[in-house]
Design a protein that fits this description.
mainly alpha
Length: 161
């Protein structure tokens, strides 16, 4: 007995969007990583070394590796979840900014401080700078995603045909 499964075009596009999201996530991660490398919301402590502390290090290179791994994951998720809606520059920019803010709430205000034994959901110089970094991530990732969709020469959103 065979079972026929029909996959809608939206579902079929998810792996493509995830791949585009991976590339977009790395571009956004590079921009955010630069922000975190030069930003010192605490004296003599770059934000990128704070990321390294997630694995018990203070090395900026380790911070970059951890950060880019997270950015890659977040980009794949962006593409898979929001790719069908982020193929035009304006919608991609807005979705990217919202997505970056969501990661700031979840990652920078909750997961990272909880992991480091610090108070969660606290507004201070570190979280303020982190918000800027996450907005840079989201904006660059969203715009890059839309540019990749345009360069690939086809939209995978069935409604845009």
């Amino acid at each position: 007995m065979t079972i026929a499964v029909q996959i809608t075009p939206r579902i079929a596009a998810i792996p493509v969007h995830a791949a585009w999201g991976a590339a977009a996530g790395l571009v956004g991660g590079a921009g955010m990583g630069i922000w975190m490398t030069v930003s010192e919301p605490m004296p003599d402590t770059a934000m990128i070394t704070m990321v390294a502390s997630l694995l018990g290090s203070t090395n900026a290179f380790a911070g970059w590796l951890i950060h880019l791994a997270i950015a890659l994951f977040a980009g794949i998720a962006f593409g898979a979840l929001l790719g069908q809606f982020a193929q035009r520059l304006t919608s991609a920019a807005v979705l990217g900014l919202v997505y970056g803010a969501a990661w700031w709430l979840i990652g920078a205000l909750w997961i990272m401080p909880a992991n480091m034994g610090m108070p969660v959901f606290e507004w201070n110089d570190v979280t303020r700078s982190s918000l800027g970094a996450h907005l840079v991530y989201g904006l660059l990732a969203g715009l890059t995603f839309a540019c990749i969709a345009r360069v690939m020469g086809k939209r995978t959103d069935p409604d845009s045909r």
